[in-house]
Each structure stands twice: as structure tokens, then as C-alpha cells.
From TrEMBL:
This is Phosphopantetheine adenylyltransferase. Its EC number is 2.7.7.3. Keywords: ATP-binding, Coenzyme A biosynthesis, Cytoplasm, Magnesium, Nucleotide-binding, Nucleotidyltransferase, Transferase. Gene3D superfamilies: HUPs (3.40.50.620). The keyword Transcription does not apply.
């Protein structure tokens, strides 16, 4: 069984994330969505809220694709999380060249820690390349329309946070 790990903070999950999840499903038998605790980023949504949002969005995806998606919170090293879930591939989404520079360094470090786990990059769909969770939160905080960037349930959760 091919198991892939798609890690991130998903604060909140965006249409860019769901695009990568849907396309990653074609590459693996089981996709584990690793939800990083990442206290340094000071997330808007709690870990429990982020996990719940992802589970809801992934249920809709598995209804379409029939694949298996598991949402798995983690607070350890990414490579250790990959080992914990049995992943042989880490899936990363790229939006722009700036993403690649950071991701390139991460791949090198992860390969040094465990060369048996590969990293695969998926480019975000052209319509989704500008979407960043940080920007979505800022738009929502200032009362802007985020419906083009996040699923409806996430839009409602953002509105609730900022009211």
C-alpha cells in the first residue's frame, strides 16, 4: 500500500489545500493529512478545529474519489511523523518559486534524516496559486469576501472567529 503524507498547519484549510489533496489521491492508496501543531505560528484555529475542518472537507473528497484519507495531528519532526504513519512519500504543494527555495532546503534535511522517504511536489492549480492561509485570515479579519479561497464551512468558521 502506498501511503503519502501531506503535512501543514491548515490554518485554515483553503481551496488550494483541497486541490492538492484531490490530486495527491491519484498518487497514493492512503493519504495522511498531517496537521502540525506548530505553536510558533500562533494559529487562529485550535488544533481540534483544524482537524475537524479537514475531516469534513476530506469526507467530501473521499465521497468523490473513493480513496482513503486520514487526518493525523502531529507535533514531532515531519520525518518522524512520516515514519509513524508508514508514509513512503511526503507530498508538498508549491505556489511560487519562493515556496520552492524553502521546500528544497526541507527536502535536503529530510533526506539526510531518512533517505527512504521521497518528497513529491505538486504545483497548485493556476486558479489557486495566490491562495495563502495567512492572506485569507487577513482578508476575513478585515471583513472581506473569502468565498473564492476557502470552502463554505471554512468561510463560516472564519466569519465566526472575527465577529
Amino acid at each position: 500500500m502506498r501511503i503519502g503524507l501531506y503535512p501543514g498547519t491548515f490554518d485554515p484549510v483553503t481551496l488550494g489545500h483541497t486541490d492538492i489533496i484531490q490530486r495527491a489521491m491519484a498518487l497514493v492508496d492512503r493519504l495522511v493529512i498531517g496537521v502540525a501543531v506548530n505553536r510558533d505560528k500562533g494559529p487562529l484555529f485550535s488544533l481540534e478545529e483544524r482537524v475537524a475542518m479537514l475531516r469534513a472537507e476530506c469526507a467530501a473528497i473521499t465521497d468523490k474519489t473513493g480513496g482513503e484519507i486520514v487526518v493525523h495531528p502531529f507535533e514531532n519532526l515531519l520525518i518522524d511523523c512520516a515514519r509513524d504513519v508508514g508514509a513512503t512519500v511526503i507530498i508538498r504543494g508549491l505556489r511560487a518559486v519562493a515556496d520552492f527555495e524553502y521546500e528544497f532546503q526541507m527536502v535536503g534535511m529530510n533526506r539526510a534524516l531518512d533517505s527512504s522517504i521521497e518528497t513529491v511536489f505538486l504545483m497548485a492549480d493556476a486558479r489557486r496559486q495566490a491562495i495563502a492561509s495567512k492572506l485569507v485570515k487577513e482578508i476575513a479579519r478585515l471583513g472581506g469576501d473569502v468565498s473564492k479561497f476557502v470552502p463554505p464551512a471554512v468561510e463560516q468558521a472564519l466569519q465566526a472567529k472575527f465577529q
